[in-house]
């Protein structure tokens, strides 16, 4: 067991290079390149809501930062640094050390620094705020989709939800398959490089945290548009593809925790989208298009409109 200041000093203090001032004073001081806008986003992870108590601390540290970097990715912003506000039930050093390992491994992979935060006793809860930069006018927004734009998604969808169903006991999977989907749930990879490469190419973007239908609805609402989505075109892992159709549909359309990018681009930019994907080593799949009519339709393989009744996740619904 350690006190508040030992915990901070031992586990969450590292020298900064990019920032002008990191942990230890009343504020951190960040350097932003001349002429760039600061991009800021916060995401909180609450035990029992966003993660299960069984998660390894390393993976929790990874995920807390990953979901935040995913928001910068969705805006096409370049990550600079982050703060960590942490509530811990006890001054548990093993837990803090594991958390810090997962956090700093991902931070190092993206060349960003922890510059400050807050530490308090309380029910386990992590809130990270990320800071990034983007040239004015170049951020990818939810509001930019236009009629005829093609709808794209990165990676594969639905594995995190499938893993959650295994934890809930509604689905069972053989060990290897379970490990695969559990990794998707606990170790999402934020698509930062893809988001940067889509600047000037994509017309709108969002990261998928609450399920495709709910998150797409946010884009459509901000853009004043509608969309048609081809269910059969949605990219899925071999593990998910082996599940019953109704379960696949639920995981793909309303899964949540995917942390892939959903974005739109004019059809004329298709080659540029594919080049961005190639350059950044992330698969992208075309899965529908934007319509001027403000309705969201999902079509099955025969081109019939599905009545899914599925919705995105809402904490208060
Ligand atoms: P204050 O009293 O001004 O809120 P604190 O005593 O809470 O400052 O924190 C001391 C320093 O440690 C500050 O620079 C703060 O940003 C940093 N800090 C506190 N908790 C964390 C944490 N979990 N991760 C990184 N830095 C932290
Ligand atoms: Mg404080």
State the oligomer.
Answer: single chain
Structural class: alpha+beta
Using only CA atoms, what is the Rg? 20 Å
Sequence of secondary-structure elements: HEHEHEEEHHHEHEHHEHEE
Distance between the termini: 39 Å
| Total number of helices | 10
Q: Could you tell me which ligands this complex binds, including any ions or cofactors?
A: adenosine-5'-diphosphate, magnesium ion
> What's the total number of strands?
10
How much of the sequence lies in strands comes to 15-25%
Features:
about 325 residues, alpha+beta, six-stranded mixed β-sheet, four-stranded mixed β-sheet, 10 helices, about 35% helix, about 20% strand, globular, binds adenosine-5'-diphosphate, binds magnesium ion
Q: What's this, in brief?
A:
It is built from ten helices and ten strands.
